[in-house]
Design brief:
With about 325 residues, this protein is an alpha/beta fold. About 45% of the residues lie in helices and about 15% in strands. It has two domains: about 170 residues, Bacterial extracellular solute-binding protein, family 7 (D-Maltodextrin-Binding Protein, domain 2); about 120 residues, D-Maltodextrin-Binding Protein, domain 2. It has a six-stranded mixed β-sheet with strand order 8-7-9-6-10-13. A five-stranded mixed β-sheet has the order 2-1-3-12-4, with helices on both faces. Strands 5-11 form a two-stranded antiparallel ribbon. The longest helix is centred in the last third of the chain and has 37 residues.
């Protein structure tokens, strides 16, 4: 009897060795924003959908505040497979996909979120998606529904009550050539600075101001050091999620579908959160930091921008067909 029992135990052990349990996958995700932001809330929703949908076989490790690298290095890691997932503004990808993204970073060219979404789903943008894929980055947010904002503001330590007050203002910039030229066109002094260093930069006078989606201003505490909150509404934005193509190929077809669905669901949460928080954030910043809300005449700013549109097309930085395609999609 003992011999039979030993043989049974040995057989069971051999079966366990021959058919190991499915290995759990842990995907690392990098995000610039921090705790309490709409980004964190949306990413937590994304993580829950992925982990529940995969019955725990795919785990999402969220790293906030650029813990795995600032945007430029994070995108490099994404291309090589050193990073699995990335979430951030579409403008960061302009270093890889120039014209197709630069054209929508031009202040006052794209009218609203519907106009932006129509462009991103149009044949005019398909070349950009192919360029990204060729470099090893796949877009997960196929619905382009993560409206960022709900609109953009200029947060300034100095009063800006009209377009003339922009002259000489030191504005924090992200690394995007066309966007920097646009703000030079408005007679400001653009200065590149990491997003996570901007608060200190304003306090120390390295920059006077920063442009940002309204939804990010309160969580970054910008009005503590820059009380003027100027509604510039320069262009609509979106917050896509992307995945390394090397990571993508390691996933099953079911897992791939799950990640796309979860990214699109997270986009809806993100857009709704930014909209819900907008008015309460403004009221809180007025109450706590004596913030001053200013609404500029953006028609005047657009007119100042028009010579740059023509110049960029003439230089070939933005092709005439691409420029025309964006304009043709306006409502």
């Amino acid at each position: 009897m003992m011999t039979i029992l030993k043989q049974a135990l040995l057989a069971a052990a051999l079966v366990a060795i021959a058919v190991p349990a499915q290995a759990q996958k842990v995907l690392r995700l990098n995000e610039s924003l921090g705790p309490g932001s709409p980004e964190e809330l949306a990413l937590n929703h994304f993580r829950k959908l992925v982990e529940d949908g995969s019955q725990g076989q795919v785990k999402i490790a969220i790293h906030l505040q650029d813990a795995l690298g600032k945007p430029d290095s994070a995108l490099e890691s994404l291309m090589t497979g050193g990073l699995d997932l990335y979430s951030g503004a579409l403008e960061y990808y302009a270093q890889i996909v120039g014209p197709e993204i630069n054209v929508i970073s031009l202040p006052y060219l794209v009218k609203n979120q519907e106009h932006l979404r129509a462009y991103l789903k149009s044949p005019a943008f398909q070349g950009a998606e192919k360029k990204l894929l060729d470099r090893g980055i796949r877009i997960l947010s196929t619905e382009w529904n993560a409206d960022r904002g709900p609109y953009r503001v200029l947060v300034s330590a100095k009063p800006v009550l009209g377009p003339d007050d922009l002259k000489g203002l030191k504005v924090r910039m992200f690394p995007n050539e066309v966007y920097i030229r646009a703000w030079k066109q408005l007679e400001t002094v653009p200065i590149q600075l990491a997003w996570t260093e901007t608060y200190l930069g304003i306090r120390q006078g390295v920059v006077n101001s920063v442009t940002a989606p309204l939804s990010l201003v309160r969580s970054m505490k910008f009005t503590e050091v820059a009380p003027y909150l100027i509604e510039i509404r320069e262009y609509p934005q979106t917050w896509p999620m992307t995945i390394s193509e090397r990571t993508w190929k390691k996933l099953s077809a079911e897992e791939q579908k799950l990640l796309v669905a979860a990214a699109n669901a997270a986009g809806k949460v993100y857009a709704q959160t930014t909209m819900d928080r907008a008015q309460s954030d403004v009221e809180a910043m007025i109450r706590q930091n004596n913030a001053v809300v200013v609404r500029l005449n953006t028609d005047l700013l657009r007119r100042k921008m028009e010579p740059l549109y023509a110049q960029l097309v003439q230089e070939g930085i933005i092709s005439k067909p691409l420029f025309d395609a964006v304009n043709a999609l306006a409502n």
